[in-house]
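A quick aside before the break. I want you to see a complete sequence-to-structure record at least once, exactly as it would be stored in a machine-readable document. Don't worry about memorizing anything.
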Amino acid sequence: MCSSTCPSTWRSSTSRGSSARPPGYVGYEEGGQLTEKVRRNPYSVVLFDEVEKAHPDVMNMLLQILEEGKLTDSFGRQVDFRNTIILLTSNVGAERLKKGATMGFTAPDDEQDYERMKENLTEEAKKVFRPEFLNRFDDIVVFRSLGKEELTQILDLELAKVEKRLAQRDLHFELDESARDLLRDHGYDPAYGARPMRRAVEKHLEDPMAEEIIRGNLLEGETVAISAKDDKLVFTQKKAKAKGEDSKVSS
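That is the input. The structure line, written in C-alpha cells, reads:
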C-alpha cells in the first residue's frame, strides 16, 4: 500500500486539481478540485499554503496559470483564471531567521531590521523557486514579526473563546496587566510566533480555573479577578458586598 508520501500519491493528488477522478470514484463527472471551483466561481481567492512543500507537478501547474491565465481540465474545457486572485504562502528562510532570532518581542517599527530580514528571505526564495516562477508574481510581501500589539489581539481572541464557554456557567473573569503579560510571554516563541498561544491559555488559565471550579472555590454567578504571581495565575473571586470579603485562590 502506498503512503501519502509516495510520489505516485503526490502525482495523483496533483492531477485531481485539474483532472477528473477515475471511473467509479466519487466526483468522477467533475472536472477537478481546483478547475471546477474556479470554473463555477471565477471571481475567487485561491490560497496555496506553504507552497515550497508542493510536488513539482503543482509548481508546473501554477506556472501555467501564471503564464497563460488558464488551465484545461480532463474534459477539454479551458478554465479562465484571469479574474482569480492567487495567494501563495511560504516559510522559506524560517530556519535562517530562527538562528538569528532574539528573545522577547521584536520591534516591528525598526525599518533597518525589516529591510535586512526582507533581503535575507528574498535570497532564500531565489534558491528554492525557479526564476521564471518568481518573475511571474505581481508582488512578494514579507510579513513583519509579531509585536506586542498583535500578540495582545491574538490573546484577546483566545480569551473570548474561554469567556464564551464560562458564560454558560454564569462565570466571568477579568485579567489585569500582569496576567496578560504572563500569557503573552508563554504564548510567544521567536521560532513559532503566536502558535503556542492557545496552549498557553489552556495550561495557565483554563486548566487551573477548571480545577478551582471542581474544588468549589469558584462559584457560579460571580466574577473572577485574575492576576499573576511567581509565574502563576492567581484567581480572586469577587463576591457581592453583602457577602463579605473576596476569596482568594491560586493555581
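Two observations worth writing down. The radius of gyration is 25 Å. The chain has a mean pLDDT of 81. We'll return to this after the break.
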